[in-house]
Amino acid sequence: MADSENKEREGRRAAPPVTPRPGATVRDEAILYGDEGDLPRRRKRREARKAAEAAAEAPREAAAAEQESATPEPEKPARRAPSVAPPKSKRKRIVRQRRPGAPRRGIFELMSATGSDSIVKPIHIFGHEFRFWPVVLLIIVALLISGIVLNNSNLNVAEQTVTVVGLPEDMEGYRIIVLSDMNGRRFGDVQSLLLRTVNGLKYDAIFCLGDMVGKDGDAEPFFEFLEGLRSPEKVYFICGDSDPGPFADEVRGTSGPLSQLVLADWILGAIQRGANYVDAPTAVTIRNSTLWLTPATMLNLEAMDTRETWKNQTEQEEDGVISGINEDYATLPVTTYRYQLAQKLYDAQRTMGLSDVHISLAHERPSDEFLYTVEDHDPAATRYLGAPELLLAGHYCGGVWRLPYIGALFVPDRTLPRNGWFPADSSIVGLSSVGDIQVYITSGLSNNGSVPLMPFRMFNGPQISVLTLTATLPENMLEAG
User: Fold this and answer.
1) 299 close to 388: Cβ distance less than 8 angstroms
2) Residue 115 DSSP code
3) Full strand arrangement of the beta sheet holding 156-163
4) How many other CB atoms sit within 10 Å of the CB of residue 383?
5) pTM of the model
6) Residues 158-168: pLDDT tens digits?
């Protein structure tokens, strides 16, 4: 058996070499299984990449295994019914966090980003994409706020010529500054801007049409204005609906001028600084002519009846004081003061001449019905004041908020169409007429105290009105004739 195996091995070693057939290719074994240096480069790169990935994955697997061994396995929750999604208000807000190592991006890059990287989606208007719209919106808001601040700080001077038929030659070119609705506001330190503007104008009188103090009762800004004027004696003022008073809460003692006992502190302070309080007809002498200033509240009062009413009331309270009635003792000074005003009305009605100029002062413009009634009075046959040539008013502040190309948004006057919404400019600002009575309404200096939702003026700067009286008819009236 062993001999046969030895013979077989010797026969293999002694086998003759194989002779290839014609055309056949003999491949060397070294070529088929060459050494490591002959491996393809692609295979070498693939193996190197796998080795690198394995080396990088080893620390992660070790850390995950360590964390898994340290964390106890949570209990498997019991099966429960599908939950209903909570309301949107209770859902947790998903905050997108910046990836570690990611570079910080500027505001413009964030606004212009698209897809998942954007924090504000672009909007499309008329087929155009706007990516920076939040920045543009912030710029618009900033410009709007800046414009409002500048608008409320600057002073506009509105010039207006008023034709008064039969105006005396002594009053030709008579200039009146009209102010209203200061509401305790300052224009510059100690009213420097307001005083610089007013003192730089040529004027013969200043009419203040109420709400110069306002609801807060701070009269110092009004006093600062009076103290800074060159001629405070040329100031004539009335009360407004937001002003304190006109009477003091309590009578001041029992001696002294009656006005010192009953009038509000701010009125007495203005009088002490040279201003003139118009609560009854007041005559102003201009060379050889007379200008009458009257409060509009007296235009429809019958002078004789009004005087007799307050005279009787005064006598009745005097008897009550003698009898020891405390209520009459407290009200008698005010009643006596009202009787004096009624007496001034009676005297003015009898004194006014046909050649005199009559200007009436109002805080809030009277209604058309009121003015038509005033115009119907005949001073020669009745005891009413004659109709004024000019009535001045404020209160509306030009609408406070105005819209470009539209006008005022709202004024607090339910007698106007639409209860004051979107009023016509002729009803709230500028010169107009009711019958033969001309009415001028100034836009004023501040906002309307009756509308607290409008705390500032918008597209409507503070206004100082300057009226020039003349007897010359306007050119358009001459052309029409």
Assistant:
1) yes
2) G
3) 156-163, 463-470, 175-179, 205-208, 235-237, 276-277
4) 17
5) 0.71
6) 999 999 999 99
457 in Cβ contact with 152 (< 8 Å): yes
Q: Which two tokens stand for residue 109?
A: 């890059």
Q: What are the residue ranges spanned by the domains of the chain?
A: 106-153, 157-480
Choose among 427, 240, 458, 452: nearest CA to 418.
427
Report DSSP state, residue 360. Answer: E
Could you identify the residue written with the tokens 């700080």? 153
CATH class of 157-480: alpha beta
- Residue 208 and residue 350: Cα distance in Å, rounded? 27
Amino acid (1-letter code) at residue 38: D
For residue 388, report the phi and psi dihedrals to the nearest 5 degrees. Answer: -75, 150
387 phi/psi in degrees, rounded to 5: -65, 140
Query: Each residue of 442-465: pLDDT tens digit?
Result: 999 988 877 777 787 888 889 999
H-assigned helices in 279-413 = 303-322, 326-351, 368-376
Mapped onto helix, strand or coil, the DSSP state of residue 433 is strand
- The tokens of 363 are what? 């805080």
On the 0-12 / 13-18 / 19+ scale of CB atoms within 10 A, 37 is exposed
User: 282-307: per-residue pLDDT in tens?
Assistant: 999 999 999 999 999 999 999 999 99
Give me the half-sphere count of Cα atoms (radius 13 Å) on the Cβ side of residue 168: 15
User: Which residues, other chains included, contact 254 with Cβ-Cβ below 8 Å and sequence gap of 6+?
Assistant: 261
Enter the DSSP assignment of 437.
E
- Phi, psi at 257, each rounded to 5°: -60, 145
**Rounded to whole angstroms, how far apart are CA atoms 463 and 398?**
9
pLDDT score, position 449 = 74
Comparing CA positions, the residue from 282, 301, 276, 442 lying closest to residue 360 is 282
Mention every residue, 6+ apart, whose C-beta is less than 8 A from residue 315: none
